[in-house]
Each structure stands twice: as structure tokens, then as C-alpha cells.
Design goal:
The structure is a homodimer. Chain A has 17 helices and 25 strands. Chain A has 3 domains: 29-67 and 264-343 and 454-508, FAD/NAD(P)-binding domain (3-Layer(bba) Sandwich), CATH 3.50.50; 73-131 and 254-262 and 345-445, Polyamine Oxidase, Chain A, domain 2, CATH 3.90.660.10; 146-236, de novo design (two linked rop proteins) (Up-down Bundle), CATH 1.20.1440.240. Chains A, B: Pathway: Plant hormone metabolism; auxin biosynthesis.
Chain lengths: 509, 509
């Protein structure tokens, strides 16, 4: 069907998903067992589905909570870094930061199905807010501008320039005659151009980019058009590239978040699996033989004592960053090489609590993200509790895979928070007066993961990905790092579903 | 500040609002009174604020409920048309249709403030959904395509064409040299162009328009790029102009809706004003003299008996469509001419209830709007209850000011619903199997308003608007029809706030 349609030149159907509804595993051999390492989403999905298929399952989890990076920080929580420094979260009741995943695209269909299956309520995550700011140091006088202005002006100027070109017959080899006339009409409409095909200051362009003075009622002053940003002021700016995020499938509407915090799904899985998760269990050795797998681990409260867990099969969701540091993992060289070759992405998130929602009350920003060239890069406003009074938490910085994230990683948590407030106050002057407390999580400094996500590139994928994903004897790996959607929960879940499907096939053979 | 900045050529600040926080009226002359006609939002805002300022207020309302067009239809409600035909709404508990206003832009700041003040909870209204459909009969084979495909492909083709033109130096008089190079870089980024500045089928454009096969986990099939729609297939189509709605300030994110139905604010006001609203009161005559205003009205349960209400002042929010039909209204010729000159917009909304959310479950459409060239024009999916099971209501058609809305107005309610299902099934084949019931509200056939909203144009504004809005003796008009934001609740509220501010100034003089 897809092939036939695309030969007509127009079909272009997108959106065939790898997940087509709940996995159907059944008929495990009686008494067969699986040990699962790690109680993040990949591990818990594996345990949940394998148990339903008839396996005896157990999960060993290093931390004293299930969920892994499906994680929410609330008032009273503690965050310990590799140097044993501890931050105590001081947010008011009901406020939180999702330091790991924080948004769910509509096309992450497996994750959405688990929300539904486990009764986790969701609400829209507002990714795309026309009224948030774009800001670049040294551009447009360094002043934040509203996204809807740049968003409209870029489109308008491009439309005007292209219309000019078409009218000068400069593109006759590409588009001419009747098509050129149609294109002009479309550009006029799409770019809010006037009769002379100009993107100018008038009420028409203000219908797209907003008015200088909004229309009112009765005998209030009449509305006034706003002045578009000039093409010369826009060309080559960072503002233009900041629009890219508005155009990416990865961030397309509708996005969601669980109500109350990202870890609601982890909590729901943990309730289901309460009797099979063993917390505070540090795996030190993974051995396998003809008749099963043996996991050596220590209870973190009793580190001198090595315990053993045995099973027929093993689903290992321990991140490669940690797995590569175990005393031993008995897998072949290809998988070992893959584990040892995968670097982990750096990422830092900083949550800031303020006395009130000044971004809503003073600036009419309801959710969404402001982008800046400052090292904090982003300010994301809460997509929940709109119009409410009292303290609220925003994401004061989110950096990844660049010098900013490494810079923040190298600082003390206090310094990260201090600078997020300092830099953020250049976007929102209210910051300093309204600031209450903050928490900064640098993923490379988390003792249980030493990084944020598997940082693949094309060369690494070609060399190692299939070896990482293949079953080695009785062991299969799963997690976002064993997926083509790294850093996203959907990747972890799809990886897990694929891994257990293959493992079940092998176990049933 | 605005002037100074715009001379620098970049400031372009938009968003100065006419409403700057709660109105502060105080010090009414002791014992002075206001009669308010109509308990819609304009009337109730007037009563609420004037009472706080010290006036004795009373409201006469024709219907047996307060709220006017701030209206929600739920199971058990009845809708009566001018020919006395009655529809009984059969929706399941919790489901509803907002037949009047249904969405609240972030820049409708007065309305949002009243939500906050009266404790009405809001949730995001999803206007902009990349995964909803665009559909035009006779274009792209008449097949619905996902909005994100058209949205990306239009941008990509435009960027490619403009890049081509720039590289051929066809635009040297407009942009050249270093700026031309910067523009090329920006176009490449913004349009997802390849190194040859082409918008082609590859993984890069799929990052914007979506993949043919989405990426997966483990050893699932690798992702595959989708095929962009060709420029020739897009140029001149209705699909292009359907994108306009994605680009309008009027519909910019973040939009909201009250949780539970649009009338939640009307209900909240009605609770506040319970003791001053008289329902079922049909105004027949409005008289004024040197010492006050006299309203003649009838209780609809006792139409032979004319009652009188007297007050010092009158705020009349009766729509011009009805006001022009009263036995008498004692105002000067300018206001009378204005009242009699204003036509009312035609609009029809059709709500359809289905057994399940097939648009979510089968098609991954979570809220937002599909646009079609069929007479139903739009299908809007609920922005609430995402992922829930059981019956749900969508807006199966919304038409206004055109032949489609008149066509639907002329049909029986049953026929409107039947055709909405028939036409809608061309977008969603599941319609026929899953349909439960529908309700269709044609505003021109509502006995209490005879139209949907004041249909101004520039000539009418010039001739009559100021006369309509000016205080005539002791009478001032208010409502969306006395605003520059017709058809929106913000217009009604701003109109009311402006009217009572002027009336209070006159009464205090």
C-alpha cells in the first residue's frame, strides 16, 4: 500500500509504529525462571510481561527505590552525588522536578499504552508555546523576544523573498506558469503578505505575530499593529535555529506528562511487582552456564556478604556505564566490546522553586519553553497547575552533550543553582526576588548510572549495536541504550519488549 | 519605550493588553442602582463589579439559566429552536459539547483573571495537533494526510526554492554577500535541507515530518524515512491554506478550556449573583427619563402581565439581533441605527458521541483539530480525558459565516447530525460503527439570540461602532458585539468593563 501510493507522488504516509498493541507472550515452560537486573522501566516491563507469560521472575535493584531514571524529585527527597555530597530537596508540597525524562510524544505509543494499562493519568506537556521567549546574547540587543514574533517573522520574510523571486521569474526552471501563480497565492496566504507581497507592519501581519496593542471592548483604545523584526536582524541569528525545536517530530504535539510526576508509572509498576523487586542489591558478577545464570550481588547494608541469585535466563538492564565496571560478566567478546565502547551522554537539569508563578502572572507564559544562548539554554515552565497561587517549580536549565552540561557537571550543586538563578534573571528579572530553593542533578555524578543515556553515533552503531542487542547464551540486555530511541522511555520499553520476545522464543525452542 | 526600541529596527514588542488587572470601581453614590439586561458573561461581570462598587444591581434574563452563549450541553439538556423543535441531549454522564465559545487564548487576560478570581479550574485546549488530519476533496487523491507532513513539507519546499534563488544570486538586491550566506545556513537548518539544499526523502526530513517506520528498540526493524509530498502536489491546494490556522495569534498556544465545560465560569458567576438574577424574564420595552430607567418585562410563565423594573442606570447586554425587535428602546437615533444595522454571524456546531476514542486508540490523535474541505469543515477531538475508555464526544462540525453554516442551519437537527456522521466517516471510517448520538446547534435558530455574534466589517465599524458603544443618557450597551473581539468571551468582558467604567464615571460626576 505504501509503495503503491508513493509512486503516485503524494502519499507520504508516515507513522508506522514498531509497537502494535500489547505484547502477547504465553506458555513459559513450567518452572522456568528469569532474573532481571535493574528496576527501571525496561526491567519492570520485562518482569511484568514475563511473569504474565508464566515465568518466575525476580528483580535486583541497586537503589532503594524502583524506577531508575523514571524519577521525580519532591520536597524531602535527597540526591547523592559520587563525592557523597547530598542535596536535600526543599520544594513545597505538590511541587516537583522530573530530572530525567519529562515529556512523552504522542508517537511513543508503547509508553502511552502502559499508562493506560496501569491507570496512570496523564496531562498535556506544553512543548510549544508561542508566548515563551527566544533570547540570544548579542542579538536584537540581547533582549528576549516572544517566540510568536520570530516564528511569524521568519515565515513572513521567507515568503516575501520567495514571492519576489517568483515574480522576477528567477525560478522558472523549478516553478512557472500556472504553478507560479498558485505558489504566489499560497505564499501570500501562508506568510500573511500584503497585496504587494510584502511582509509589513499592518493589522494583517499582527494577526499572525500579535498586536502592539491588543484589541479591546467598548471605547477602549483601538488595536495597533506590531512592528516585525527586520530580515537583516534575523538572518544568521540563533533565534532562527531556536525555531527548529518547534518543527521536530520528536517534540510534535500532543506531548504528555503523567499527572503528579514522571515516576507515577514507575510507582505503578513497583506496586505490581512489589513481591519480586529486591532493592539495595548491588550486582558484582554475572555468570552463565549450560543450565542457567548466576548473579552475585551484595546487599548494600551488608557489603561483606556476597549473595547469589540463580535463574534460567537473565534480562540485564544495567546501563553500559555501570555494566562495564562489574567484576565479571560472562558474555562473548562482541557483547563485551559493545558494552565497553558505549559512552554516556552528559546532562544536567536544574529545578528552581519560586514564591509565585510570575511567568504566568506578569508575562502570560503558560507552560512551554524559553530558549536562550546563555549556558542555562532553556527555561521550561510547568505544564500543570495553571493559574494556581503559591510556590511553583520551573526547570531553570537543561543542558546535554555540550560544554554547558560539562561545565555544570563540574560545579557543586549549590553553584549550579546559584548560576541558574543568576543567568535566568536576565530573562526573568523577578528571579532574584522570588527564588526559594533549587536542586541540580548532574547525571554523570549519579553513583548508580554515571551518565544520562547511551550516546550512540553512526560509527558506533555500525560497529556494536547488533552485538549489544543480540542474546548471548542466556543473557539479553535491554534499556534505552539498546534502542534507536536513546534517552527516551519509549526506547527502554521497546528494547525490553523486543528482548523478552526473543528470549521467550529461545526459551520455548 | 516601545517607540524608542522600534526605531532601532528590532524591538517589535507585541502584547500590550487593554486589561491590566482587576477593575477598581468604588464609591457608588449611596442608594444608586443599575438594572442589567441579560445574564451572559457581559451582564454578570457588570453586576458582579457594580455591586462591589456599591450599586444596587438586578439582572433580568430571558432564559431559564444564566450564562448566555457561555454554554455547555450535557446529557439530559434540551435545545429548542425557533420552530419549537426540541433536541434532547443523550450524551453519557461527564460528556459535553460547548456549542458557543470553546477555547480561551492566553492573551484573553481578563477572562483568565476571572477564572482565577472565581476559582474555575482550567486545562489546556489543544488547538494545534501535528498528528490531526488535513483533508481536501480532490487533492492528494482525496486522502487525509497528517498535519505534520504538510506543515513540514510546505516549509521544506519553500526553504529549498528560496535557497535555490539565493544561490543563483537572483535576490542580490534584497539579500547578498555575507547575509546571503547566513540566510542559506538558516534556511538549511529551518527547512531540514540536505547539503545540496534539497528537501528530500531522508532521515533528516523525517526528523521533521515523521518517519515511514518509526525507530524501535533491540533488534526491531530499523527506521525508514518517509516520502515528502511533492511541491507540485502541494502548490495551490487547500491544504496549504489550512496551515494558516496554525499560524494565527488568535489560536496561538497556550489555549485553555475550563475543566468540565465552558459554562463553569457562568455557573460560578451565577452562584455569586444568585440573589440578583431574575430568570425567565422577557424584556419588551426600555424607557429612560431624567431620573432613571424603566424596564418593562414579562415573566415567561405569565406572558399577559407586564412587570416593571426601575433603576438609575441600565447596562443592556441583549444582543442587537434581539434588541432591534423590542417594542421600544428609548435611545437616540445614532444608537438605534447602530443596533438595527448590525447583522449577526451564522454558525453551527455539531457534537457527536461515539462508543470509544477511536481517534486516540486507532489513529493517535490526542485533541486538536482536523480540517477538511467537506461541508463539516472541522473535526475537533476532546482536549480532556485523554486515554480514557468509554463514550466520548467530539465536535463533528463547526461552520460559520459561509454557505456551509447556512446549509446546516436550514436542515433539521437530525439531518445535520446524520450528515456530520456521513461526511465525517470519510475522514474516520470508524464513525458509522461507533456512533451513539449527536446534537446540532444552529445559532440563527436559537430563540434567545437569533444568531451567533455581531458580524462587523470595516464599513459598519466606521459608520456605527462608536454610536453603539457610547452611553446614551442612562443606558450603555455591552457584550461581544460592542467590542473589537467579536464572538469571543474576552470581547464581552472587556466591553462590559469599559461600559461600567464609563457609566460609573458618569454616575459619580
Amino acid at each position: 500500500m505504501y509503495q503503491a501510493m508513493s509512486t503516485l507522488g503524494f502519499a507520504a504516509q508516515s507513522g508506522q509504529y514498531q509497537y502494535n498493541g500489547p505484547i502477547k507472550l504465553e506458555g513459559a515452560k513450567p518452572g522456568s525462571s528469569v532474573v532481571i537486573l535493574g528496576a527501571g522501566l525496561a526491567g519492570m516491563v520485562a518482569a511484568y510481561e514475563l511473569r504474565r507469560a508464566g515465568y518466575q521472575v525476580q528483580i535486583l535493584e541497586y537503589q532503594d527505590r524502583a524506577g531508575g531514571r523514571c524519577y521525580t524529585l519532591r520536597g524531602g527527597d535527597s540526591v547523592e552525588e559520587i563525592d557523597a555530597s547530598v542535596q536535600k530537596v526543599q520544594f513545597a508540597r505538590g511541587n516537583y522536578l522530573n530530572p530525567g525524562p519529562w515529556r512523552v510524544p504522542y508517537h511513543h505509543v508503547a509508553l502511552l499504552d502502559y499508562y493506560k494499562k496501569l491507570g496512570v493519568e496523564i496531562e498535556p506537556f506544553n512543548m510549544f508555546n508561542h508566548n515563551a521567549y527566544l533570547h540570544a546574547d548579542g542579538e536584537l540587543g540581547g533582549k528576549p523576544v516572544r517566540a510568536h514574533e520570530v516564528y511569524s517573522d521568519v515565515r513572513g520574510h521567507v515568503a516575501e523573498l520567495l514571492a519576489k523571486s517568483v515574480r522576477q521569474n528567477a525560478l522558472d526552471d523549478a516553478v512557472s506558469g500556472e504553478d507560479a501563480q498558485k505558489l504566489l497565492a499560497s505564499l501570500k496566504d501562508w506568510g500573511f503578505l500584503d497585496k504587494q507581497y510584502r511582509y509589513a507592519k499592518n493589522m494583517q501581519t499582527s494577526m499572525a505575530r500579535g498586536y502592539a496593542v491588543e484589541p479591546g471592548g467598548g471605547l477602549m483604545p483601538v488595536a495597533r499593529p506590531s512592528q516585525p523584526i527586520g530580515l537583516k536582524d534575523l538572518v544568521g541569528t540563533n533565534l532562527w535555529s531556536m525555531l527548529g525545536v518547534f518543527n521536530m517530530h520528536e517534540f510534535a504535539t500532543t506531548m504528555f506528562e503523567p499527572k503528579g510526576g514522571m515516576d507515577m508509572l514507575a510507582q505503578a509498576f513497583a506496586r505490581e511487582l512489589k513481591d519480586v523487586i529486591r532493592l539495595r542489591s548491588q550486582v558484582v558478577r554475572i555468570e552463565q552456564g549450560a543450565d542457567g545464570v548466576t548473579i552475585s550481588y551484595k546487599d548494600r547494608g551488608d557489603p561483606d556478604n556476597v549473595l547469589k541469585a540463580r535463574a534460567d535466563w537473565c534480562v540485564c538492564t544495567i546501563p553500559a556505564s555501570v555494566l562495564s565496571q562489574l567484576e565479571e560478566i560472562q558474555v562473548g567478546k562482541p557483547m563485551l566490546d559493545a558494552i565497553q565502547s558505549l559512552p554516556y551522554g552528559s546532562s544536567v537539569k536544574i529545578g528552581l522553586e519560586f514564591n509565585r508563578r510570575f511567568w504566568e502572572e506578569d508575562e502570560r507564559i503558560y507552560g512551554g519553553i524559553s530558549y536562550t544562548s546563555l549556558p542555562i539554554e532553556q527555561i521550561s515552565y510547568p505544564s500543570t497547575g495553571y493559574l494556581s497561587s503559591g510556590p511553583a517549580v520551573l526547570l531553570g536549565s537543561y543542558t546535554y552533550e555540550n560544554t554547558n552540561s560539562y561545565r555544570f557537571t563540574a560545579m557543586s550543586p549549590e553553584e549550579r543553582v546559584r548560576l541558574a538563578v543568576e543567568w535566568g534573571s536576565r530573562i526573568h528579572p523577578q528571579y532574584k526576588k522570588e527564588f526559594r530553593s533549587g536542586v541540580a542533578l548532574a547525571w554523570h555524578r549519579m553513583p548508580w548510572i554515571h551518565g544520562c543515556y547511551g550516546l550512540w553515533n553512526d560509527a558506533l552503531r555500525a560497529a556494536h549495536y547488533d552485538d549489544l542487542a543480540a542474546i548471548d547464551g542466556r543473557i539479553v540486555l535491554a534499556g534505552e541504550h539498546v534502542s534507536y530511541i536513546p534517552a527516551w522511555q519509549e526506547g527502554a520499553i521497546l528494547s525490553s519488549l523486543d528482548a523478552i520476545t526473543r528470549l521467550h522464543a529461545k526459551a520455548s525452542a
